[in-house]
Amino acid sequence: MQTELSITALILEASIVVQLVMLLLLAFSVVGWMMIFQRAKVIKSAAQEALKFEDRFWSGVDLTRLFQEVSARAQNASGMEKLFHAGFKEFARLRNNQGLNQQQVLDASYRAMRVVHSRELDGLENNLSFLATIGSISPYVGLFGTVWGIMNAFIGLGAVQQATLAMVAPGIAEALIATAMGLFAAIPAVIAYNRFTYRVEKVDNQYLNFMDELMAILQRQGSAKKAGAEA
């Protein structure tokens, strides 16, 4: 309990510059943790929804029926559902166009999915750059507070005839608290950023693999229809 009181007293008695540094680092930490919890929820949900839709997609359901199901809940569709909806909608719209060959139809479907893919990836990566910023600058902000506090401590020593450890210790201690707060803000942000980047990459690979698989299926459907028409 005494340690907590001592730390609190050091913070309250610190110079205004060091206090502002500590306040800024506290804000970084709070915002960082808010982003960590929010991003964790979004990315986890995206990965689970992707697996769920893939199971439905490979269950043997007719693609036209699946398209209708996704269209009915288009406003609440998951990322992979949006990819499927965009690609199949464009394919269904253009496949009966006599002025386009099969490859042109497939290319248009793939472009439609790429637009949605880019939008969904941006949504998953939202705020990750800010986490990286918190992780990279917080130690330096804390170091600035430390340097300022130690500088003030030594300036104070110049005004006395005899310096003692008791005189310089509080100033150095309050300065080191700024460094500790900088690390406290930075370490979770760096860990979360690296973890989320890895998880977003995994979800992105799921999306890209699904797009390739859907294109292969649409290509087979187009070839089968063409063969039936020629027969």
Automatic annotation (TrEMBL):
<keyword id="KW-1003">Cell membrane</keyword>
<comment type="similarity">
    <text>Belongs to the ExbB/TolQ family.</text>
</comment>
<dbReference type="GO" id="GO:0043213">
    <property type="term" value="P:bacteriocin transport"/>
</dbReference>
<keyword id="KW-0472">Membrane</keyword>
<dbReference type="GO" id="GO:0017038">
    <property type="term" value="P:protein import"/>
</dbReference>
<dbReference type="InterPro" id="IPR050790">
    <property type="entry name" value="ExbB/TolQ_transport"/>
</dbReference>
<dbReference type="GO" id="GO:0051301">
    <property type="term" value="P:cell division"/>
</dbReference>
<comment type="subunit">
    <text>The Tol-Pal system is composed of five core proteins: the inner membrane proteins TolA, TolQ and TolR, the periplasmic protein TolB and the outer membrane protein Pal. They form a network linking the inner and outer membranes and the peptidoglycan layer.</text>
</comment>
<feature type="transmembrane region" description="Helical">
    <location>
        <begin position="171"/>
        <end position="193"/>
    </location>
</feature>
<protein>
    <recommendedName>
        <fullName>Tol-Pal system protein TolQ</fullName>
    </recommendedName>
</protein>
<feature type="domain" description="MotA/TolQ/ExbB proton channel">
    <location>
        <begin position="78"/>
        <end position="206"/>
    </location>
</feature>
<dbReference type="InterPro" id="IPR002898">
    <property type="entry name" value="MotA_ExbB_proton_chnl"/>
</dbReference>
<dbReference type="Pfam" id="PF01618">
    <property type="entry name" value="MotA_ExbB"/>
</dbReference>
<comment type="function">
    <text>Part of the Tol-Pal system, which plays a role in outer membrane invagination during cell division and is important for maintaining outer membrane integrity.</text>
</comment>
<keyword id="KW-0997">Cell inner membrane</keyword>
<dbReference type="GO" id="GO:0005886">
    <property type="term" value="C:plasma membrane"/>
</dbReference>
<keyword id="KW-0812">Transmembrane</keyword>
<feature type="transmembrane region" description="Helical">
    <location>
        <begin position="16"/>
        <end position="36"/>
    </location>
</feature>
<dbReference type="InterPro" id="IPR014163">
    <property type="entry name" value="Tol-Pal_TolQ"/>
</dbReference>
<keyword id="KW-1133">Transmembrane helix</keyword>
<feature type="transmembrane region" description="Helical">
    <location>
        <begin position="128"/>
        <end position="151"/>
    </location>
</feature>
<keyword id="KW-0132">Cell division</keyword>
<keyword id="KW-0131">Cell cycle</keyword>
